[in-house]
Write a structure and sequence with these properties.
binds cytidine-5'-monophosphate; 19 helices; 43% helix; 15 strands; inorganic pyrophosphatase (n-terminal core); Diaminopimelate Epimerase, Chain A, domain 1; binds zinc ion; 3 domains; globular; 5-stranded parallel sheet; alpha/beta; 14% strand
């Protein structure tokens, strides 16, 4: 079988075979949109391969978390969206015979190797822009379908029925009499290609779409999803909320490209829409972008571009009004689940508030009313992001030579301070020409650090993963991540020393 990412194929097959050899598996994943989709992909692949498993989520895979995992009586642990950066800790447990790790991750690996380690960075693929944790998990899921197909009843995974938690053998009777319909959807399920939609949600949630679209291995996964009938892509308005926001709110809240008289301007947005010769209300309610016809969309988009041009928005910015949209074609129109970007925000709204179970339920097809609960959490998440961005913009960031920073104390939750920092970049007083470092209180002893850069700074040599790792270890903490976005934990009181060290390292990176 040629997998979705040929470079990773051999390793993926080795990992899949190892999972098939396990009696049961502990699946451990990270608490954000990418971590949740990684887990949801792995969970469905394990279910379909009839490998029993249990799922746990961790905010961070530190020494304590790995020790707790080792204390369970699972012999095989599948780590998704983390594990590579903690290979030193994990390796010690492996050596001690606590468990065999299987890792599908895209973070910078620690200085150690293990046999069942699937990571794009080991094969020359960029883990910050070409493959996410969910993408790595998808590559594994595809391999799992292929190898478990060989090993088990070849028709099991294609029967479309409820997946069973017990391993089936070909001698067991099948409820449908063993006749497999060769419809496209059933095929996509049989080889796990239907899971490409979740992989794209993970990549978008990790902000891997740069310049308006996904690249590299991610683009290959998109193609598989389109073939499998679970994804549609095309150029569309690059605004957040095309599925769920009423049109005036869609325009008012869209601030990535500022359009004078519309962005951040409730009445302006209303006047703009009223001025178009279209029926944009139905039963007194504003319609949503996703419900417009192609012609209606064209009319609104052209008027928006015209307005941007006439109010002096630079051409380069205007280009950013259009990007590639990733639509989950099997989800209902007008729901968060249909748009990869809205879906990923919905997931962050659960996982970053200790409700990863809710997000996982959503990914697995709205189990136990998870979607309604997730929507409540989303309202809270939006409020927190907006308050956080206001706070940071009001107080501004402290400028050092090469970095800028702020300390949110207990005013912003440590699990979302990085998202806030990234979204605030470019606002008044927060430059896009220096990376931003954000601190938030974690507990009585520790401070959480999040850092965000831009792709342009990365091209100039910035690697925040190295900055967070080195600067945190210099003050008795630990950290890592990606070149463009990374984090750390440091002892409380070490913030100033940390900033000084980080400032030096960034200075060195950008000068060489
Ligand atoms: O742990 P993980 O890799 O899943 O998280 C990546 C984080 O980095 C996400 O919160 C994402 O929003 C952030 N990121 C960013 N800008 C980028 C790439 C990633 O803020 N260009
Ligand atoms: O929360 P998350 O990091 O997934 O958000 C991804 C992007 O979605 C943000 O950078 C922002 O541009 C957009 N967003 C938004 N309004 C929200 C949440 C997210 O515009 N309420
Ligand atoms: O928490 P935050 O959103 O700032 O994380 C940014 C990136 O850094 C994520 O990919 C996260 O997994 C990584 N990170 C890490 N080690 C830490 C904290 C964050 O590798 N201690
Ligand atoms: Zn990730």
């Amino acid at each position: 079988m040629a997998g979705p990412v040929p470079e990773l194929e051999d390793r993926a097959v080795a990992c899949a075979n190892r999972l098939c050899a396990a009696d049961r598996v502990l699946l451990a994943s990270h608490i954000d949109a990418d971590g949740l989709t990684s887990a949801a992909i792995a969970a469905q692949a394990l279910e379909r391969a009839a490998i029993p498993f249990e799922t746990v989520f961790e905010k961070q895979l530190d020494e304590d978390a790995v020790t707790a995992i080792a204390a369970t009586d699972y012999d095989t642990v599948l780590f998704t969206d983390f594990g590579s950066g903690q290979l030193d800790i994990i390796g010690d447990h492996e050596d001690a015979g606590d468990f065999t790790p299987v890792i599908a991750d895209h973070h910078q690996p620690a200085d150690r190797e293990t046999e069942f380690h699937l990571n794009p960075l080991l094969f020359g693929i960029n883990g910050a822009s070409e493959l996410s944790g969910a993408g790595a998990s998808y590559v594994l899921a595809r391999a799992l379908a292929a190898v478990s197909d060989d090993e088990l009843d070849p028709s099991v995974a294609a029967d479309g029925g409820e997946p069973s938690q017990t391993r089936r053998t070909s001698s067991e009777p099948r409820s449908d009499g063993g006749i497999v319909t060769a419809s496209g959807a059933a095929n996509a399920r049989a080889d796990n290609r239907d899971l490409a939609a979740l992989a794209v949600v993970g990549a978008v949630g990790d902000m891997q779409a740069s310049g308006g679209e996904l690249h590299g291995a991610n683009a290959g996964i998109v193609e598989e999803g389109v073939d499998a009938g679970v994804l549609e892509t095309g150029k569309d308005l690059a605004l957040y909320g095309k599925q769920t926001r009423p049109l005036p709110k869609l325009l008012e809240y869209a601030t990535d490209v500022h359009i004078p008289g519309i962005s951040n301007d409730e009445n302006g947005a209303l006047r703009f829409l009223d001025g178009l010769d279209l029926e944009l209300k139905r039963d007194g309610e504003w319609r949503r972008w996703a419900g417009l016809t192609k012609d209606e969309k064209q009319t609104v988009a052209s008027a928006l571009v015209q307005r941007a041009v006439s109010s002096g928005v630079p051409a380069k910015k205007i280009d950013q009004l259009v990007s590639t949209a990733y639509v989950l074609s099997e989800e209902p129109v007008g729901t968060e689940l249909r748009d990869a970007s809205e879906f990923s925000t919905l997931l962050n709204a659960t996982a970053r508030y200790e409700r990863a179970d809710v997000g996982l339920g959503v990914c697995l097809g709205d189990r136990d009313g998870a979607l309604e609960r997730a929507r409540q959490l989303l309202r809270e998440h939006r409020r927190n992001l907006s308050n956080g961005i206001d706070l940071v913009t009001r107080e501004g960031a402290t400028q050092e030579d090469h970095v800028q920073w702020f300390h949110a104390g207990d005013e912003i939750r440590e699990t979302i301070v990085g998202i806030v920092a990234g979204m605030a970049m470019g606002n008044q007083g927060i430059s896009r020409s220096k990376p931003i470092i954000a601190f938030a209180e974690k507990n009585d002893e520790e401070t959480k650090v999040s850092s965000r850069g831009t792709h342009s700074l990365v091209r100039q040599g910035l690697d925040l993963s190295a900055v967070m790792g080195k600067a945190s270890r210099a003050v008795g903490g630990d950290g890592g991540g990606h070149d463009v976005a990374a984090g750390a934990t440091v002892p409380k009181g070490q913030e100033k020393a940390f900033v000084e060290r980080a400032d030096e390292i960034v200075g060195e990176q950008l000068s060489s």
